[in-house]
Amino acid sequence: MTSIIAAIYSVLGLFYVLLFLFAAYSLYAMISAAPFVPTAKKRVKKMISLSGLRNDMTMMDLGSGDGRIVFEAAKTGAHCVGIEINPVLYYWSRIKQGIRPRKNVLFRRESLWETDVSHIDVLTIFFIHPKMEKLMKKLRTEMKPGALIVSYAFTFPGWQYEIKDDKIYVYRVER
């Protein structure tokens, strides 16, 4: 009986540790970029469709959360990369990847501010307004000309989008 109680306390302890990590990294994400907000499947499909993603392209989702955009984009055959700093969300994506392996999907746990985006053809993002200008400077400087950025819900200040469909904005990098 005591071993069952000990096991229950161990599971509860692990749950609280994971909950704390999730909350701490969610707070960090909100300060540095955006909180985790799952994007509706309908919007994910629309984002991928508007990007024109093909199997000869590389796609990256900055702040990939639970990986839903990466997994949907992978259906095109493109090489898809998810960048996530929150360890709970990162490992959840990796678990999902392990359950249904895809050779064209990769998840990396790192800060989006330190991520190399120079080789990316299509970048998807969900950011909050206070950080959009900082992100815009990074992307315009580091991404290759002709690359596309698909932003859900938020626009870049002073940068004209090529396509607007509901709350989805598509930008082309030019130099």
UniProtKB/TrEMBL annotation:
InterPro entries given in the database record: FAM173A/B, SAM-dependent_MTases_sf
GO molecular function, one term: protein-lysine N-methyltransferase activity
tRNA processing keyword on record: no
Superkingdom classification of source: Bacteria
Swiss-Prot/TrEMBL keywords: Membrane, Methyltransferase, S-adenosyl-L-methionine, Transferase, Transmembrane, Transmembrane helix
Record carries keyword ATP-binding: no
Membrane-crossing residue ranges in chain numbering: 6-37
GO terms (BP aspect): methylation
PANTHER family: FI06469P, METHYLTRANSFERASE DOMAIN-CONTAINING PROTEIN
Protein name: Uncharacterized protein
Organism: Candidatus Magasanikbacteria bacterium CG10_big_fil_rev_8_21_14_0_10_47_10
Lineage, highest ranks first: Bacteria, Candidatus Magasanikiibacteriota
